[in-house]
TrEMBL record:
Record GO terms (molecular function): sugar transmembrane transporter activity
Classification via SUPFAM superfamilies: MFS general substrate transporter
UniProtKB keywords: Membrane, Sugar transport, Transmembrane, Transmembrane helix, Transport
Domain Major facilitator superfamily (MFS) profile: 1-386
GO CC annotations on file: membrane
Organism: Anisodus tanguticus
Stored CDD domains: MFS_GLUT6_8_Class3_like (cd17358)
Domain of life where this protein originates: Eukaryota
Name this protein carries in UniProt: Major facilitator superfamily (MFS) profile domain-containing protein
A Pfam family annotated for this UniProt entry: Sugar_tr
Transmembrane segments annotated in the record for this chain: 6-25, 32-51, 57-79, 91-109, 115-136, 199-222, 234-255, 267-291, 297-320, 332-352, 364-382
Family affiliation: Belongs to the major facilitator superfamily. Sugar transporter (TC 2.A.1.1) family. Belongs to the major facilitator superfamily. Phosphate:H(+) symporter (TC 2.A.1.9) family.
Length: 399
């Protein structure tokens, strides 16, 4: 029970971070929200490092979760707002690439270092983020939305280059904000108005499927999965991390070429296959059939699963979310969608151990069924946003 609480309490903190993250990003700015997040995350890691009892461990894990809840929303939004149209997909995918690179680093270091050293090392990227934010511009769209005209133009010029022609992009953003100023202040109920509900359904649906295909159960408990299947857990998790980095990098290069929909559909199909392979490996183990193949079958299934997730369902939902919400509802809408993501993460991370005790193969057959539903949702609901201006995407969703 304590193991499950420690694993899942991060997601409870992240849910609270998701609820407040949008308002923080609108009030303090995108950079201000990221800077606050880095401070809180550092406090969380230090609490874990210094802990002498379980409650302090839980507190540290909760604080780290809160900061992750804020930053998991703010970073995709910030990258989406500062990126040129033709590079938005690739640059947004670098967020997911950084996440899986961090996972790989922890898997490798964790094979040799204790958990207290890992917690202390977690403070380093927080410090780098805090300092690095002094050297990058604020989101031009946020500056324009808050009436900081000179800062808006300076930030846009810095992002596009001193010799670039920013007149068209500048006028497009300003015209769009002029329209937004005539609209009433958005409340939670307004998110489900005719003009916004499609963006809400698309974003919440993708985030729900991203989690309920079982990803955080596999990431949080990958060591236990490899142990259960009889595969070397240290080797398995390191190879797992290496594959994530490689495939996520490939997905980042493809997403602005192949488009969002094809990669999401390919990803969901591969997740279905990966879950089925893992399920069959545990089924063979349960009925003592082909026992010599079980470890390798489970290992292959996990690799197929994580490769498939990394190429589309990892970065795709965050990218789509950053593209479909208009500026005046991004704070509230993004918070709701991020809350859905972390609620799903909590459900999966908390129930995974109990599901595995119920039926190891049944757990992955259940996740496979969710993958099938995800494929139907992507086919029916997700628009292609490749190469389109954010303002153009918002207009098409309202048409």
């Amino acid at each position: 029970m304590q193991y499950s609480i420690f694993g899942s309490i991060l997601t409870i903190g992240a849910m609270l971070g998701a609820i407040t993250g949008g308002r923080i990003a609108d009030f303090l700015g995108r950079k201000g929200a990221m800077r606050l997040s880095s401070v809180i995350c550092s406090a969380g890691w230090l609490a874990i490092y210094l802990a002498k009892e379980p409650m302090v461990l839980y507190l540290g894990r909760f604080l780290a979760g809160y900061s992750i809840g804020v930053i998991s929303y703010v970073v995709p939004m910030f990258v989406g707002e500062i990126s040129p149209n033709k590079l938005r997909g690739t640059l947004s995918s670098t967020n997911q690439l950084s996440i899986v690179f961090g996972l790989l680093a922890v898997y490798v270091i964790g094979a040799f270092a204790g958990w207290r050293i890992l917690a202390l090392l977690g403070v380093i990227p927080c410090g780098l983020l805090f300092l690095g934010l002094f050297f990058i511009p604020e989101s031009p769209r946020w500056l324009a939305m808050n009436g900081q005209q000179e800062e808006f133009e300076a930030a846009l010029r810095k992002l596009r280059g001193k010799d670039a022609d920013i007149s068209y992009e500048r006028s497009t953003i300003q015209e769009y904000l002029t329209i937004l100023e005539t609209l009433p202040k958005v409340t939670f109920i307004n998110l489900f108005d005719r003009s916004h509900y499609r963006a809400v359904i698309i974003s919440i649906g993708l985030m729900a499927f991203q989690q309920f295909v079982g990803i955080n159960g596999i990431i949080f408990y990958s060591t236990e999965i490899f142990k259960s299947a009889g595969f070397n857990p240290s080797l398995g998790t390191i190879l797992f991390g290496v594959l994530q980095v490689g495939v996520t990098a490939g997905g980042a290069l493809l997403i602005d070429r192949a488009g969002r929909r094809p990669l999401l559909m390919m990803s969901a199909s591969g997740l279905l296959l990966g879950n089925l392979i893992i399920a069959f490996s545990f089924l063979c183990k349960a009925y003592s059939v082909a026992l010599t193949l079980v470890p390798n079958l489970a290992f292959v299934g996990v690799l197929v699963y994580i490769a498939s997730f990394s190429i589309g369902m990892g970065a795709g939902p965050w990218l789509i979310m950053s593209e479909v919400f208009p500026l005046h509802v991004k704070g509230l809408g993004g918070s709701l969608v991020t809350l859905m993501n972390w609620f799903g993460s909590w459900v999966i991370s908390y129930t995974f151990n109990f599901l595995m005790l119920w039926s190891s193969h049944g757990t992955f057959f259940l996740y496979a069924f969710v993958c099938l539903l995800a494929m139907i949702f992507i086919y029916e609901m997700i628009p292609e946003t490749k190469g389109r201006r954010l303002e153009e995407i918002h207009a098409s969703l309202n048409s």
